[in-house]
Amino acid sequence: MSSYLIVGAGVFGVSTAYHLIRKYPNANVTLVDRDAYDATSRVAASWDWNKVVRADYDDFVYCKLALEAQDIFVNDPLWAPYFKQTGVYWICRSDYAQNVVNHHRRLGRTDDIITLPISEARKLYGGIFEDADYSGAKEVLVNKGSGYALAGDALRAVTKEILHLGVKYVTAEVASLEIDAQNTCRGIRTVSGDVLRADHVLLCTGAYTPKLLELSAAQSGRSNLRSEDRILAAGITTGLAQLDEEEYKKYADMPVGFQGYLAEHGKPFIGSLPPTKDRELKWWGSKIFSNVREILPGRFVSAPPAGPDYQQWNVSRRMKQDIIEQKDLWFGSKSKHWNMTTHRICWDAFTSTSDFIISPHPAAKGLYLATCGSFHGFKFFPVIGKYVIDMLEGSLSPELEARWRWDRERPDALTAGNPEYPNAEMNDLLDTVAKL
Ligand SMILES: Cc1cc2nc3c(=O)[nH]c(=O)nc-3n(C[C@H](O)[C@H](O)[C@H](O)COP(=O)(O)OP(=O)(O)OC[C@H]3O[C@@H](n4cnc5c(N)ncnc54)[C@H](O)[C@@H]3O)c2cc1C
């Protein structure tokens, strides 16, 4: 009977465990994560109030994959309670909208997806986006099929389901990989010294992946384990504002908003999420920041700050200011009095083209990776594990294998025209402390 050790219980790890246990009900599948799946605070990027679930991609491959995932969010009783089909309102500064519409047509989809001139679009939804920033915008894409998921709730529910199906869950921090003299990865060693073994070791460790590979390289003396410039760990600030009862009524049925920017604007697309059950609107910041530190003598790697919670609740004034600025891109002066309640730094793993890495690791037999959500991985939760199994079994389509493999062409983000790549360093966003 095959055994699988999956490190990381975010969407990549849980989706893989879900598809594995359904395909092979007798398989020995163990998930290991530093946080309990039902902890009140987790470091996973996948653990969040909400995440956008959209199939509005101008990249055909991800458009198709996102539609496959979205159909499950809509129709499958395990996922449907966590999906809110609010639609998206996308202010486009490029040919993005036309590309999305063409992809949907090519895929034979009859989704409710349209492009509108700005003057017409800003009257929609009771005019809530009237004061948004339309500078340089060409048109607005409205797709009523997209929406958002209650991310943390969905992650908890699906994890609970797979535990019921026989997956084991171990709460422990993994310190390094166990690699034998024949270059085969046999398992992992936890920080407390326990060794867990399996035939397949899959790293779904998100932002922590480069650091874990670096530590394992040092521990095993195999420098080719390192991710080098393939993966960059980076954080993004998110912030919430709570509306009062009266104001909430105006935004209760709002769609997800997107400000689409280009690589030359030096910032990613900026989203505005509909209110949570506590009447809180959410935005993310324009700064995607790496945190490069010397983690071993002479080895500089970007990683989330040390500590059990990645210090994710320690948000500087500059980071909070970034959120205010992005909020204003949507709601301008009418939002000046809104009370900002909660801030968090969310850490993810990035590649320069935003393509995932779903691949065997060439440095050790039995070692695999499924990671690099690159700021867009959540929406694939219902399906991504199916493709990870294809990778494990060598049956991934040549197109996907080429997109997701460990060694592939890696243009820099600007050349790749990718605005969703880290654009800052965390140190530069921390509060300066007065020297007295
Ligand atoms: C601010 C922000 C907003 C986003 N918005 C969206 C969105 O709207 N829509 C969308 O589709 N995507 C979005 N994303 C991207 C998406 O959240 C991520 O791509 C996706 O959740 C990554 O999932 P993962 O499983 O790779 O990693 P994670 O969810 O980060 O999971 C990794 C897990 O590995 C565990 N782990 C790591 N190292 C160890 C170790 N050494 N030992 C034990 N456990 C370990 C961690 O505890 C964690 O639980 C957003 C990301 C950010 C940062």
Automatic annotation (TrEMBL):
Belongs to the MSOX/MTOX family. This is FAD dependent oxidoreductase. PANTHER family: FAD DEPENDENT OXIDOREDUCTASE DOMAIN-CONTAINING PROTEIN, PEROXISOMAL SARCOSINE OXIDASE. GO terms for molecular function: flavin adenine dinucleotide binding; saccharopine oxidase activity; sarcosine oxidase activity. Residues 4-391 form the FAD dependent oxidoreductase domain. Pfam families: DAO. Keywords: FAD, Flavoprotein, Oxidoreductase. Its cofactor is FAD. Gene3D superfamilies: D-Amino Acid Oxidase, subunit A, domain 2, FAD/NAD(P)-binding domain. InterPro entries: FAD-dep_OxRdtase (IPR006076), FAD/NAD-bd_sf (IPR036188), MTOX (IPR045170).
